[in-house]
Amino acid sequence: MVSSAIRLFVALLRHSGASRTILHDVAREIFPWIRFLPPADAEAFLAELADVLRAAQDIDNPGPAMQCVVEWRHTAEAHAAPDVREVLVRGEYDDLGPVPPPAAER
């Protein structure tokens, strides 16, 4: 049954027009945080999720799909916080040097 749902999701994503609009509306219900993503990123998330779901199903491991959602959710969190987004967009912090190991590992 899950494989059928994944195939349906992928098929809807490949079509344009009304089915794609419905898919985006449904995605906002399932992932409310998607509204913080710019439209191009929301589209990229759904496309990546479709690809990862198909691949994860093939290896019978939902972990990669769950990780995909977690990573995109963090991206939405960054877009939702103007101060964080500004730092990321500006890119003023390139490499601040090596990070010392935690105190417990010294």
Question: What's a quick, concise take on this entry?
Answer:
The protein is mainly α and 106 residues long.
Q: Would you write up a description of this structure?
A:
The protein has 5 helices and no strands. By secondary structure, it is an all-alpha fold. Helix 1 (2-14) runs antiparallel to helix 3 and helix 3 packs antiparallel against helix 4. It is globular, with a radius of gyration of 18 Å. The termini are far apart.
Primary descriptors:
106 residues; mainly alpha; 5 helices; 69% helix; globular
> Can you tell me the residue ranges where pLDDT is under 50 for at least 5 consecutive residues?
none
Shape: globular
Termini separation (Å)?
50 Å
Main beta sheet strand tally, sense and closure: none
Count the DSSP helices: 5
Order of helices and strands: HHHHH
Helix content range = 55-70%
Structural class: mainly alpha
Write down the Rg: 18 Å
Content of β-strand:
under 5%
Q: How many strand segments?
A: 0
Domain count: the total is 1
Mean pLDDT: 86
